[in-house]
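Troubleshooting log. The previous run stalled partway through. Resubmitting the same two chains, unchanged.
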Amino acid sequence: MHVLSLNSLSGSLPDLLASGASGASSLVINLAYLIAASLFIFGLKQMSHPRTARRGNFLSAVGMLVAIVVTLRDREIVGYGTIIAGLLVGSAAGLVLAVRVKMTSMPQMVGLLNGFGGLASATVALAEFLKVYYDPNRDPRIDTLVTICLSALIGGVTFSGSITAFGKLEGWKIQGQSLSRPITFPRQHALNALLLLLTVGLSWLIVRNYEASLWAVALLYLLSLALGVLVVVPIGGADMPVVISLLNSYSGLAAMTTGFVLDNYCLIVTGSLVGASGIILTKIMCTAMNRSLLNVVAGGFGTGEMAAGAVPGAGGDVVVRRMDAEEAVMVLESASSVIIVPGYGMAVAQAQHAVAELAAALNKRGVNCRFAIHPVAGRMPGHMNVLLAEANVPYELLADLSINSEFEQCDVALVIGANDVVNPAARSNPSSPIFGMPIFNVDKARTVMVCKRSMNPGFAGIENELFTCPNCVMLFGDAKSVVGDLVKQLAGGH
Amino acid sequence: MFLAEASVIELFTNNFVVFILAMFIGFEVIAKVPPILHTPLMSGSNAISGITIVGAMVIAGLGRGWWSEVLGFLAVAFAMVNVVGGYRVTDRMLAMFQKK
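Second attempt completed without errors. Output:
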């Protein structure tokens, strides 16, 4: 598009060649990229409602097709073999992943895709460097070299950080230690800061003297990969929604910096959209936990030592009331309004279908049954909503924190596999690590039923005084079988 | 030399202007996506960040020796996993939200 400007016409030789020899062709390509970028924006705009979202996704895919097809006309391309091989292999792998993945594993899927996005951008940046390095006639622009280094750094961190996050979500073990626990060691942040400084130093060397910096480029990539792992390991499993959102943003920013390297507006625009999306989601997740991004990224949250202000003796000799399925069904049947609060435990137990059946059965009996979904429930933004959609729960029944005022008029709050997001300590106990976090006030409901495997504290390692409230009863067991029993009792009773 | 430098600055500035404006559009558009669609939003944005495919294809077609073939192939394949995997899985999820 800069072809049109006078200044660049009188500028460097490659620009002159671009605008002269194949001006028409590059105009077509640029216009096609503009169309693609517009379709991406329009597609995202249609994501504002579940009714139009699918069409938006389709339009976005059409934009991608336009971008890919028109790139085949690029004047620098001399052979198509490698391109076609890459397209086929990538498409096959992507298709298999997308068709096979379970809805409960969606955080892992998105984590993996974040990583591949970062890796693709870092790889393109490396190739762009080698293109300059092996071409004796080329005088690279300073901003190109700078953005190559940035792309290497962001892309590398995104890739190795995402793979680490993937391992945490999958519960990988290293020497018997579960990766999903925060892994901390002395001077961790000092080491990370040192590595970051080193990458800046290396980038400076590369920009100053790229002809003699092949080793520096190799080292820059290695350091970036190491940094990605080190930055993610101290972050605990319950903070994964923030990490996944942040890495999502990085994968976009990596594409954006690669756009600077290639002077390609389509990459810059699209990468920025993804970057903005990840930033917004990260912000929403942090707000929903009442923590700063720095606090989350510093890690070590919920290592167990922080349970200050816990209920004395909870998990041991404390008295909680149990209830069996038969009794629970009687309470549920006589209720006029029920709010279900699902959490990560529902995903782990694959209980979404049983839960949906329960809600449908209750609604059929005239009980007003809805869902309250916390922004950080599960392992990524929107995790619970997808699981319930899979189980055919109409999205009108899914509410967010705005439902909070209704717990006081609610007969039963049914908590299924959620813990920290219903912990009243967040309201009342200033010494609790989650103090100030917006929670669902389930303790205000007439009866709270908590479906839980055992009295173990939640993933943040914090005791929950909700369980000892006088209006709280426990339904112990695997969420899927407990809720399954409720559904059975409900059907059998009449 | 002076002209060349001026054009470097101009090219970079152009890129930078586009970047800033696109971030504004991104914030405006994404802020309107409701929380229930946040997971498909993420997988959908994974798909569009596969736009790196455009740069990857040019590398893969350069024909400058083994490095361009290997890096080009890898970059195209990884970006394409995002494009195909991202759009397909997003469609799968959105179809679930659409049915009644």
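Takeaways: The radius of gyration of chain A is 26 Å. Residues 291 and 437 of chain A are 8 Å apart (CA to CA).
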